[in-house]
Structures are given as C-alpha cells and as structure tokens.
Amino acid sequence: MNQLQTIYLAGGCYWGMEELFRVIPGVTKTQVGFSGGHIANVSYREVTTGTTGHAETLMIQFNSEQVTLRHLLFEFFRLHNPTKLNQQGNDIGTQYRSVIFYCNEDQKIIAESVIDKVNESGDWGSPLVTELTPFNNFYPAEEKHQKYIMKYPDGYTCHFRRDLVLGE
C-alpha cells in the first residue's frame, strides 16, 4: 500500500486550515488552492467574487503509516464549524463552504463513516452541512497565500482546534 496519500478539504479560509493541519504529525505537505468550481486555473481574486463555484481548499499529503485519514477528518471537524452553510467566522460565501473532496472510493467510505460519527455525537448541536464530493481539480493559490500564517503570524484566521469528542 502506498504510504503517501492526498486529501482535499475545504472549511472556510484556507490560511487557518493550513496552519493547523501542517503541524499534525504524519502530514508531509500542505498547499492552499481552489477546488470544486467551473473555471480552470482560477485565481484568488476570481474566487473571492463567489461566482466561480470554487471553494478555498487545502491539499493535505500525509503518510498513512503515521496518521490515518480518519484522524485527519476528525481534526477537520474540530477545526471549523461544519454546521454553517457557506460561512466560517466573518467569511461568507460559497467559496467558504465545508467540503471533503475524496480521491477514491476508500476515502469516500471513510469520510461517510466520520460524518455519521460526528453527526451522531451531537457535539455540534446541529447537523453537518459538509459536502462529500469527488475530487476533480485543484488549482494552487498564488505563492503569497501559501503558509500565510507562518509568514504573517498575526494574520487573519477564524480557525482553532475545539476540544470535542465527535464520536471518535
């Protein structure tokens, strides 16, 4: 089995998501960009209009012998509010929606299982609105957006790790 896997997650502003995921042991690479839309080679400025169909997305490459996809997905549901449709913090629009872009059937099955567990836990108090969508494309954001919080430690983020059990 290939130890390196990739998953694409959207949960609001990608700056904060990247900062929290990149430090998880077993995560080998992160990159911010855009997925789920209808325009090829889209730019940040285009996505901010909310008309491209893209979501701000985090590409996560991980070593599956060090961290499981299941664990990463539970972290995903701790790091953003998956009950808010098209909103995280002050960020509002379809580009900030909650989405798991799965790359294969195994990822889809694991994601469905985690979504069910999180919903059953009741920890969020409302049903999840997270979309589960086949991965289609990923367009990296401009370099100034990569590792943004590392470059600008006081930069904007609406993400933080919540101390939730989530049925894990």
List the helices and strands and how they pair.
Elements: E1 4-11, H1 14-21, E2 27-35, H2 44-47, E3 55-63, H3 69-79, E4 87-88, E5 91-92, E6 98-102, H4 105-121, E7 131-134, E8 139-140, H5 148-151
Parallel strand pairs: 6-7
Antiparallel strand pairs: 1-3, 1-6, 2-3, 2-8, 4-5
Helix pairs in contact: 3-4
Structure commentary:
By secondary structure, this protein is an alpha+beta fold. It has one domain (4-151): Peptide methionine sulphoxide reductase MsrA (Peptide Methionine Sulfoxide Reductase, Chain A). It is built from five helices and eight strands, in the order βαβαβαβββαββα. The strands form two sheets. A six-stranded mixed beta sheet has the order 7-6-1-3-2-8, covered by helices on one side. A two-stranded antiparallel sheet has the order 4-5. α3 (69-79) crosses α4 (105-121). The relative contact order is 0.26. The model has no long low-confidence stretch (mean pLDDT 95).
